[in-house]
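Q:
Just now I want nothing more than another pair of eyes on a protein record. Here is the record:
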Amino acid sequence: MKKLLLFAGLFTSIAGTAQVLYQEGFEGFAPGAYVSDSPIWDTWTSNPGSAEDAQVSNAYAHNGSNSLHIYGNQGPMDVIMLVGLDAGTYEYSFYAYIPSGFAGYYNVQESPTPGVGWAFECFFNGDGTMTFIKDQATVLGGSFVFDQWFQMKHRVDLDNDTVEILYNGSSLGSFVFDSAFGAVNFFGTGSGNVAGSMYVDDVTIEEGFTTVAVKEPVRALTLNFGPNPATDFITVYSSVNNGKVRILGLNGQLMMERQLSGLSRGERMNLNLPGGIYFVELIAGGSRTMQRLVINH
């Protein structure tokens, strides 16, 4: 396995709300070159130039002339982009193109060393649907368009253990991301009987979430509650008065949901849940925030 080089030594920053840690459009590769020639790309078993390695193609491109072609059915193509982040907030995005009659797949690894743990995985199915799996359970779904470039964006909050998935700028939802952001794995496979063939381009990692300018100041959405650890109830407070409060399990399963209208002064929520670790999510005014909850009995 290659050693993961420090982002600070490899990447540049730009003016604005986010610092670009990494950008790759594959224009610096010759068509047919292996992606493992880059210092932060490797193969699953650290075997560059083998059947596991992926090659740059000029068949399709979102920008420029090149992209990375990921194809196969249960491998052997199996490449990873080393990340190695364990704190902070980040936006990870890439563009994908899947020709009609094919499917695609990627996953996020918990460690730069592959196989330590899967944070989650995504299947681009042969019927045009997307399925996100975490801990062997479906946590999100959506759809994509064949024969067109589309953007997948991931807003990873390692401080609050969440990830939000966006397709072409529209949110598909969020779920628990309770590990480090170790690597992104592009595996050459499809779904069911449909073989995989996916082109990847314009990969970006930015530190911090990009903010959108608004005409009027918006009060930040806050979430506080106690006691924590809790036994049979919590009192929830926020900077807004009205909002939807959801209790989620570690696998993203919805355990409780209530629409509350007195959050600025505090609203009590009775709990009837087994002991363990949960997440309290507040959704209000198009924004959401989430905090960890421990229940002890």
Summary: The CA atoms of residues 89 and 157 lie 4 Å apart.
